[in-house]
Amino acid sequence: MELSPSGFYEILSPRCTVLISTVDKEGRANAAPFSFVTPVSSNPPLVLLCAAPARHTLANVRETGDFVLNLVSEDILDKMWVCSKAFPRGVSEIDKSRLTERKSKQVKSPSIEECPGWIECTLEFEKEAGDHILVVGRVVHAECKDEFMVKTEFNVSRAKPAMHIRGKRFAIGERVVQAKAA
Questions:
Q1: Are 157 and 173 in contact (CB under 8 A)?
Q2: Dihedral of CA 123/161/15/55: which sign?
Q3: What domains can you pick out in the chain, each with its CATH number?
Q4: pTM here?
Q5: In principle, which of 68, 98, 106, 123 could form an S-S bond with 140, CB 3.0–4.6 Å?
């Protein structure tokens, strides 16, 4: 079956889902779900996210120079979906979704307590690419809750990370789940 070129990313799924948390220059928190995220280098540690130009996430990263990748697990999938709504600038999606801000270790942007793991980043550079902006961040701190680690390895079966397919479709391990409309 042929796919439209613009739908190519569905067969590049599932993709890790994160909530990217940021703050604006006034210190107001923002969180938005992303699945266009990937590591690009381990030395130095760099991660890439693709942001739509009009998103508050990109504006905040530009203003403050940092962000946090918060790993989304199955148990917060519906709360994550609340964060995808278009709230006015300055309204905290973290509050609206009833998630909890957690002070980050190295950056101004908060982490989200309910997530199994957090990757704190500073802005390295950005580049326009089609209808998105490629944002490369330098990882300055990475942390995972102890219960999701076995020795030094991340335990996927315990953490149950949400892997995005398309729209509201996600895979959890070998299962596909759909987020409920909030």
A1: yes
A2: negative
A3: 5-178 (2.30.110.10)
A4: 0.87
A5: 106
- 3-state secondary structure (DSSP) of residue 12: helix
How many CA atoms lie within 13 Å of 23's alpha carbon, on the beta-carbon side? 18
Compute the distance between CA of residue 71 and CA of residue 135 in angstroms, rounded to an integer: 18
Tracing tokens 């997530």 back to the chain, one arrives at 115
Q: If 0-12 CB within 10 Å is exposed, 13-18 middle and 19+ buried, where does residue 130 land?
A: exposed
Q: How far is 41 from 45, CA to CA, in rounded Å? A: 5
Contact indicator for 107, 140 with CB cutoff of 8 Å = yes
The helix/strand/coil state of 125 is strand
User: What are 21-59's pLDDT values in tens digits?
Assistant: 999 999 999 999 998 899 999 999 999 999 988 889 999
From the CA atom positions of the chain, what is the Rg in Å?
A: 16
